UniProtKB/TrEMBL annotation:
<dbReference type="GO" id="GO:0051539">
    <property type="term" value="F:4 iron, 4 sulfur cluster binding"/>
</dbReference>
<dbReference type="InterPro" id="IPR006638">
    <property type="entry name" value="Elp3/MiaA/NifB-like_rSAM"/>
</dbReference>
<dbReference type="InterPro" id="IPR013785">
    <property type="entry name" value="Aldolase_TIM"/>
</dbReference>
<keyword id="KW-0479">Metal-binding</keyword>
<dbReference type="InterPro" id="IPR058240">
    <property type="entry name" value="rSAM_sf"/>
</dbReference>
<keyword id="KW-0949">S-adenosyl-L-methionine</keyword>
<feature type="domain" description="Radical SAM core">
    <location>
        <begin position="20"/>
        <end position="264"/>
    </location>
</feature>
<dbReference type="GO" id="GO:0003824">
    <property type="term" value="F:catalytic activity"/>
</dbReference>
<keyword id="KW-0411">Iron-sulfur</keyword>
<dbReference type="Pfam" id="PF04055">
    <property type="entry name" value="Radical_SAM"/>
</dbReference>
<dbReference type="GO" id="GO:0046872">
    <property type="term" value="F:metal ion binding"/>
</dbReference>
<dbReference type="InterPro" id="IPR007197">
    <property type="entry name" value="rSAM"/>
</dbReference>
<keyword id="KW-0004">4Fe-4S</keyword>
<keyword id="KW-0408">Iron</keyword>
<protein>
    <submittedName>
        <fullName>Radical SAM domain protein</fullName>
    </submittedName>
</protein>
Length: 303
């Protein structure tokens, strides 16, 4: 039995084959191939595509409370649905990285310094990441903290837009927090930004430029997950739901930010994109809808 390539078969049928050319697709593919995984995502199970049920690396949750009320927030949804994790450590022995914290604003807790020290002593070899909105970070508090990576959320480049997204007039304080961590080269400083097309597209390169000017090392640009309880708020704010599911749109936003800062996208997503060919990458979409966030790690008592 003879086998023919599709080009050979086409010529046998009297048709000269043509290769579909898409310069934008090839540009996106090169951009993805060159992207580095986020510092925060190192050691995360989601980078291993052979793992069919990956979980985020461990976290220590301090409080589900927050002084922001962001229109996209999954933690807010968890609180409303009554499934936010109670304070404590969610993980296992001998972790390589621990996040403080994934729910709520950790700097609201009076135990932040105590827990930071506890984790250093209990897990001396683990990388410690702080995830915060930055609005409560001061020079005085910073001198008491000891983290390896600090991720500060900022999704707007102006006080007005920040207020519309977070429902809190804290833009100047968040910028000051970026300045504090950006000037401390003993830590890896990251501005964490959610891509919300129709709401903050034009802000993303401005956030990147602002963060870079403050000495911030990295931008972690994340796609939006649309939780059902947030749909109406996002719609009123102007979210383009169709573009929010487009990988191409996310990558184009990242390319604009890359002009100013070391931009990276979510590691578990990037691991999948790196395996795709240019045309698949150009048209692929992600399922952005979700009902409620879940913690897949068990709570463990620290002694």
């Amino acid at each position: 039995m003879m086998r023919y390539s599709w080009e050979e078969f086409a010529r046998m049928m009297g048709v000269e084959p043509q290769v579909l050319e898409n310069k934008e697709a090839r540009l996106l593919k090169k951009f993805v191939d060159d992207l580095t995984y986020p510092s925060h995502c190192k050691f995360c199970q989601g980078l291993d595509l052979s793992n069919l049920n990956p979980v985020h690396h461990p976290s220590y949750e301090l409080t589900p409370a927050c002084n922001h009320d962001c229109i996209f927030c999954y933690s807010n949804v968890a609180v409303k649905l009554g499934n936010a994790p109670r304070p404590g450590y969610y993980g296992w022995d001998n972790p390589k990285a621990i996040t403080v914290s994934q729910y709520g604003e950790p700097l609201l807790s009076p135990r932040i310094v105590e827990v930071n020290k506890l984790l250093r002593e209990r897990f001396p070899d683990a990388r410690l990441d702080l995830q915060t909105n930055g609005s409560l970070l001061t020079e005085k508090l910073w001198r008491k903290l000891d983290f390896d990576i600090v991720m500060i959320s900022l999704d707007a480049a102006s006080r007005e837009k920040h207020l519309a997204i977070t429902r809190a007039d804290t833009f100047d304080r968040v910028v000051n927090a970026l300045k504090i961590v950006g000037s401390d080269k003993s830590v890896r400083s990251v501005v964490r930004t959610i891509f919300m097309p129709g709401i903050n597209d034009e802000d993303i390169p401005k956030i990147a430029e602002l963060a870079a000017s403050l000495g911030v090392d990295e931008m972690m640009l994340q796609p939006l997950t649309i939780h059902e309880l947030n749909v109406e708020r996002l719609r009123k704010a102007g979210l383009d739901f169709d573009r929010a599911e487009s990988i191409k749109e996310l990558l184009k936003a990242a390319m604009e930010a890359k002009k100013y800062i070391d931009v990276r996208i979510s590691g578990c997503l990037l691991a999948q994109l790196k395996r795709m060919d240019a045309l698949t990458l150009f048209g692929v979409r992600r399922v952005a809808r979700e009902v409620a966030p879940l913690v897949k790690r068990e709570r463990m008592e620290l002694k």
